[in-house]
Design brief:
By secondary structure, the chain is an alpha+beta fold. It has six helices and four strands; from the N terminus they run ααββαββααα. Helix 3 runs antiparallel to helix 5.
Length: 163
């Protein structure tokens, strides 16, 4: 009986230790607002934010403009082809730009390069469209609700991208 208990306990400890070392890819995204007040010059923070946003699985790279103001970034995604409609690209750009401008203090513009489609959004134009300062948001839930509400206005989204 002692051997069975000892074997069971050893097996349990081994399983417990191995489960602690397993991948956390199924874990929920961490709170992105821990990156609030990040800067364009902090490459790892910028990349980590991008990797938590929609279409992160198509994210290929980012180039940061940190030498001259206004500071910004160009984000390259894999070519998504005909699988996405123009409205989906625009919604992704608005959503992701909203997070980037909320969390990265000195970001003033972002270019989204989806392969066959490119969109540029400036922080000032997005804030004017929203009618609200992005740095005022304090958590993901509040920002998500606000973005979702604004994205319902398809004509408004279209107007945002007219130069």
């Amino acid at each position: 009986m002692k051997n069975i208990t000892k074997d069971f306990l050893s097996s349990f400890i081994l399983v417990f230790l191995l489960s602690g070392c397993s991948s956390t890819t199924d874990a929920p995204n961490e709170d992105l607002f821990e990156y609030k007040k990040s800067f364009i010059g902090d490459n790892s923070a910028v990349i980590h934010i991008i990797e938590q946003l929609p279409y992160a699985d198509q994210f290929e790279g980012v180039s940061l403009e940190t030498k001259t103001e206004p500071y910004g970034m160009t984000i390259q995604y894999e070519h998504m082809g005909a699988s996405m409609e123009e409205s989906e690209y625009k919604e992704a750009a608005v959503y992701n730009a909203s997070y980037l401008f909320t969390l990265i203090d000195n970001a003033q513009w972002v270019v989204f390069d989806f392969g066959d489609t490119t969109y540029t959004i400036s922080k000032s134009k997005l804030q004017d469209w929203y009618g609200k300062e992005l740095h005022d948001f304090t958590n993901e839930e509040e920002l998500n609700v606000f973005i979702a509400d604004k994205l319902q206005d398809v004509n408004g989204v279209h107007q945002l991208f007219i130069e």
